TrEMBL record:
NCBIfam families: PRK00668.1, PRK14545.1. Major role in the synthesis of nucleoside triphosphates other than ATP. The ATP gamma phosphate is transferred to the NDP beta phosphate via a ping-pong mechanism, using a phosphorylated active-site intermediate. Residues 1-136 form the Nucleoside diphosphate kinase-like domain. It is found in: Cytoplasm. This is Nucleoside diphosphate kinase. One of its GO terms (cellular component) is cytoplasm. Keywords: ATP-binding, Cytoplasm, Kinase, Magnesium, Metal-binding, Nucleotide metabolism, Nucleotide-binding, Phosphoprotein, Transferase. It is an enzyme of class 2 (transferase). The active site is at residue 115. The keyword Transcription does not apply. GO terms for molecular function: ATP binding; metal ion binding; nucleoside diphosphate kinase activity. The gene is ndk.
Amino acid sequence: TNRTFTMIKPDAVENGHIGAILEKITAAGFKIIAMKYTQLSVRDAQEFYAIHKERPFFGELVEFMTRGPIVSAILEKENAVEDFRALIGATNPAEAAEGTIRKMFATDIAENAIHGSDSDANAAIEGAFHFSGREIY
Ligand code: GTP
Ligand code: MG
């Protein structure tokens, strides 16, 4: 068993998809071991997405991720990182497979409904960024 980290992004929250997305996640066998409803500050978003700071879309990404509340969570499952990336689908929903969360709920490559960690190391870093030890069950 291992862990991944996710955020339901502001577009999906605005569009009323929190419940449907959590249903897909739990139906796929992920156990929620930490969860909160919160809003990122500009500094939070810049730090969280620091790896993309040289990209032309960095400013847009920070603006998007801070414009409203998100749901952040740590999920547990065997092969969590890889299986969760498969469940959410490609970054661009136009290229995402049928039945994936991004295919069903994302708007476009920028406003793509959900985040999933891309490695075990990043899952640990991202989970610790959002949750203290006492918030993980
Ligand atoms: P995350 O799970 O959110 O990390 O997405 P990803 O791993 O599928 O994609 P990546 O890490 O490459 O990009 C991070 C996020 O930046 C994406 O999920 C989008 O929200 C945003 N993004 C990626 N490409 C573009 C782009 O071309 N334009 C804009 N505006 N945003 C982008
Ligand atoms: Mg990424």
